[in-house]
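Residues determine shape. We examine one folded chain.
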Amino acid sequence: MSKKYYIIDFDSTFTQVEALDELARISLREHPEREQIYQKIEDLTNLAMEGKLSFRESLAGRVQLLEANRDHLQQLVKHLKKQVSTSFSRNKKFFKHHADDVLIVSGGFKEFITPVVLPFHIKKENIYANTFVFNEAGKIVGYDEANPLSNEGGKVKLLHELQLQGEIHGIGDGYSDFQLKESGMIKKFYAFTENIERKSVIEKADHVTPSLDEFLYVNKLPSAISYPKNRIRCVVVGHVPDTVTKYMKKEGYAVKHTDSLEEKHIADAAIIIMGNKESISAKKLVLATKLKVIGYLGKSKHHIPHEQCTAMGVLIFDHAGKPEAIAKRIARFIDNGDSFKSSNFPNMQLPELKSGHRFIHIYRNAPGTMSLVNQVFATHGINITAQFLMTNKLIGYVVTDIDGAYDKQLVKDLKGIDGAVSFRVLY
């Protein structure tokens, strides 16, 4: 089996922003024409990322406009550390376990890239980027023009020089990242769209990855979450404020807004958020085989069949206050398993799991079921670090935290317990 390498871009991929654009905002803060200069720098960035301007011309133009020094760079680094992409932040373990396989390859500059990526266990020798040239006063006056990454097609030239022996995958948001695939240097190019979507890049990608979680999932690599949020369909029905939709999109869910709930929407929905006075019939609810949770902006009792939802393992959250509060409760349930303030489920507030795995198990409330659950863990030699259980007349809701690895058969056995209604692995 050949070794795999992962070539990762920095700007708008590892971080949420373009670092040179941010450096301009820091260094030109007091400049009387700062807004016009910001726009020029941003335009130069986008033209290069879309393949409409050579990288060399774009880089030279941006550096010339910066008016930056070493002090500004220190401020930039502090800012960038807070701007690491959300899905990268939660997947530090991936970088730790694959420290030998991950290369940061960027047209940006080592002076700000290195201090941002080193805390992610990325090796210094695996960071490839440009370097600034300073004058005696510490002002940036240029860059090392001999560095291949300062030229058009620089990433391709660099990989030719490195002669990596193995299967190479590239992740990035710009045209220079796609050039690696175009050149035949890498097996697959993943267009990273968590921060920005460039149509010209997406059209050429082997796979669009809205988060690092998606990339890890399709490549069967260890991830902080078991299932990428961009694959979780959230259907928003009726009059629901934009703040709710925006929150769910920001969380990474695939959001679909519709005026009425039709059968075609129900089958794929894991989350349904409904405006006040909207309803779902018992007949339609049967079709919702993937549904995990319903959020209702109002009182749902006369609009949603509560007992049927409970028997199906579907949580309901009602809310009459700030609309975005319902979105936060749903996200908390999906992320952590909290059922607190549910209208139909046993209410549980759970601690966050710092390490290990969390299993959510919903089963029909019958004597002896919990002993069957724990017997499965014992049979597989699994050490339970914490377990939380609450019941109502219809179902039991049990959350189990374990440390260490587990195999697929454990999941099959837990799903196969008599009386099991629903089961999912959180992380």
Summary: The CA atoms of residues 385 and 402 lie 5 Å apart. DSSP finds 19 helices and 17 strands in the chain. Residues 4-218 form a domain with the Rossmann fold fold (CATH 3.40.50.1000).
